[in-house]
Amino acid sequence: MTDKRLLRKKIGLILRNVSSQEIERQSRNITNSVIPLLRTCRSVACYMSMESGEVATQYLLKHLFDEGKTVYLPRCTSTEETGHVVLREPKRNYPHLTFHKMQSWQQIQELKPQGKYRLREPAREHPDPLPAQLDVVLVPGVAFSLKNGGRLGHGGGYYDDFFRRYKLQHNGGKPLLIGLSLNEQIVEGIDLEIHDQKMDCIVTGDGDIRWVELPK
């Protein structure tokens, strides 16, 4: 297996031993630290957390609606389904994300697991949306490095593909990228490949905020 596959396996084994109570404790710490960072932001992309193994986002999502933010959630799809441009080589069908504007906290609560990964994600829209203008993306991951802002995903390349699409859609601009990480997901270093997008900031389960690059 490659180093990344080995690291995914290692972190997965560690997370199996983290209790739901501990994940909830760390998730609340992270929520309390992230909220001030979003005070001046209007459009925020988040994610619906899986039942175990990553930062729970329900507290954060409810706060975003309470504060009147515009909230977007991702949907796993493919270039074959959406007809969107293929950005990877070779030029064939690839998975990617579309982000969908959510209307209310109630709408989010009613989402059911669906799709290949059984995630609670928005229904498909027609046409499939291109990346909207965002102030912040709250990013999940398998592991994060505080040293270089590196992020290790699940291996599908969904988020890195989206970040590239976003830059193409918005003339090279990008939103602030905040990685949400349980303490057990922090590793010493993650080698970055040319297509890997590092985080601007990582918020950890003890509530610490680590800036990789200070916001301009």
Automatic annotation (TrEMBL):
Gene Ontology biological-process entries: folic acid-containing compound biosynthetic process; tetrahydrofolate interconversion
Keyword rRNA-binding recorded: no
SUPFAM superfamilies: NagB/RpiA/CoA transferase-like
Name this polypeptide is given: 5-formyltetrahydrofolate cyclo-ligase
Family according to the record: Belongs to the 5-formyltetrahydrofolate cyclo-ligase family.
Positions of substrate binding: 48, 54
Superkingdom field: Eukaryota
PANTHER family noted in UniProt: 5-FORMYLTETRAHYDROFOLATE CYCLO-LIGASE (PTHR23407:SF1), ATPASE INHIBITOR/5-FORMYLTETRAHYDROFOLATE CYCLO-LIGASE (PTHR23407)
Species annotation: Zygotorulaspora mrakii
Residue numbers binding ATP: 4-8, 151-159
GO CC terms of this entry: mitochondrion
EC code: 6.3.3.2
EC top class, as a word: ligase
Alphabetically ordered keywords of this record: ATP-binding, Nucleotide-binding
Sample GO molecular function, one term: ATP binding
